[in-house]
Amino acid sequence: MIDEFASTNKLPAFRLKQFNEQFYKSAVNSFDEITNWPAALRENLSKSEKFSVLKIDKELTSKDGNTVKVLFKREDGQRIETVLMQHQDGRNTVCVSSMVGCPVNCSFCATGKMGFGGNLTSREIIDQVMHFQRFFKKRCKNSYQCCLYGYG
Question: What are the residues whose beta carbons fall under 8 Å from the beta carbon of 90, sequence distance 6 or more?
C-alpha cells in the first residue's frame, strides 16, 4: 500500500519511515493521526488508499472476557475470523487467518466444509494484526504473540 503511494508521489525515504513508525508502531486509528505528515499529504493518502481493506462484520467476546473473536468481511464479501486469547498467565495470542476456508476438507473440521475461498493478501493479513495492535494500545498492553493459521 504505502510503497506504491510513496513511489507514485515521489516521497523521500524519511516520509516512508515516518509512516511506518506511526501506522505500525503507534497503531494510529486513521491516516489523519499521522501527524508528522503535512495535512495535504495525509489527505492525498486518504483519497488514494483505504486505511483498512477489511470491515468488522461481527465481534464476540467470551463471558469471561478472555477471548475475542472478530469476523471480518473482505471487499469481495467473503468472511474471515481473527481470534484473541488472553491467557491467565498474562500471555496474549492473536490467531490470524491466512486464507478463506480450507482446501483440505478434513471430516472432523467445520472450516473444511466451507470449501476453499482463496489465500488472503498480505494487506488483509496485516489489517488483522493491526486491528489487535490498536486493541492492545487502548488497553495499555503491548505484549502479544501472533499465530498465523492457514487451516488444513
Answer: none
Please, which contacts does 140-148 make with residues 24 or more away whose CB atoms are closer than 8 Å?
141/92, 143/92, 144/84, 144/91, 144/92, 144/93, 144/94, 145/91, 145/92, 145/93, 145/94, 146/93, 146/94, 146/96, 147/93, 147/94, 147/95, 147/96, 148/96, 148/98
Whether residue 87 is predicted with pLDDT greater than 70 in this model: the reply is: yes
108: confidence class by pLDDT, cuts 50, 70, 90: confident
pTM: 0.86
Written as nine digits, the cell of 43 is 489527505
